[in-house]
Design goal:
The chain is an alpha+beta fold and 180 residues long. The protein has two domains: 72 residues, Ubiquitin-like (UB roll) (Roll), CATH 3.10.20; 96 residues, Orthogonal Bundle (DNA polymerase, domain 1), CATH 1.10.150. Helix content is 33%, strand content 9%. Helix 2 packs across helix 5.
Length: 180
C-alpha cells in the first residue's frame, strides 16, 4: 500500500529498517525535515502523520503504509505560504532556520491536539476544555529546540495565527503578553 506524502502516492522503501526521516530525505528528496539529533530529542524532524505530529527519526517508513504524511514542503498551498509560515516570517520566528520545519509541523499538530482536548503536563483542568494559555503553548512546544533562541518569535507567530481559534486563551492571543 502506498504512503501518501504531501498529497502524492509514494512507494514504501524495500528495506523495512529505513526511518521515515531517511525515507523522506534520501528516497523522496524532501529535505525540509532536518536530521538534528537522530534520537528524538530535538524535534527538528517533526512531521505530521494523519494530522498528528511525530518525530520522523523514530518512526519507520513502513509504519506509514496507507497513511498521509505531511512535511513542511506540503504546508504551502501552491505558491501561497501556510498562514503559520507567513507568521514565522512576520514575527522573526527563525534565525538560522534549521529547526523551523519541525517547529511549523509541531505547532500545527499541537493546535489539533488542543482542539481534540488532549491535555499536557501543565493542563490545570483535566475534565474541561483544554485552553491554549501561555504556559500550555510553551509546554506543548518544548519538544522542539531552537539553538538560536527564537522562542519569543515562534510563540508570537503561533499565537497570532491561531488567535481566532476558540481553544486559544485571550492571554495567548495578545502577543504583547506572550513576548513578556
Amino acid at each position: 500500500m502506498p504512503i501518501t506524502v504531501n498529497g502524492h502516492a509514494a512507494v514504501p522503501p524495500d528495506d523495512p529498517r529505513v526511518s521515515l526521516l531517511d525515507y523522506l530525505r534520501e528516497h523522496l528528496h524532501l529535505h525540509g525535515s532536518k536530521k538534528g539529533c537522530n534520537q528524538g530529542a530535538c524535534g527538528a524532524c517533526t512531521v505530521l502523520v494523519d494530522g498528528e505530529r511525530i518525530l520522523s527519526c523514530l518512526a519507520l517508513a513502513v509504519q506509514c503504509d496507507g497513511r498521509e504524511v505531511t512535511t513542511v514542503e506540503g504546508l504551502a498551498n501552491g505558491g501561497q505560504l501556510h498562514p503559520l509560515q507567513a507568521a514565522f516570517v512576520e514575527h522573526d520566528g527563525f534565525q538560522c532556520g534549521y529547526c523551523t520545519p519541525g517547529q511549523l509541523c509541531s505547532a500545527i499538530g499541537m493546535i489539533a491536539e488542543v482542539e481534540r482536548g488532549v491535555p499536557s503536563h501543565v493542563t490545570a483542568d483535566l475534565t474541561g476544555d483544554v485552553r491554549l494559555t501561555h504556559d500550555e503553548l510553551r509546554e506543548r512546544m518544548s519538544g522542539n529546540l531552537c539553538r538560536c533562541g527564537a522562542y519569543n518569535g515562534i510563540v508570537d507567530a503561533i499565537a497570532e495565527t491561531y488567535a481566532q481559534n476558540r481553544a486559544v486563551a485571550p492571554d495567548v492571543a495578545d502577543t504583547r503578553k506572550v513576548a513578556a
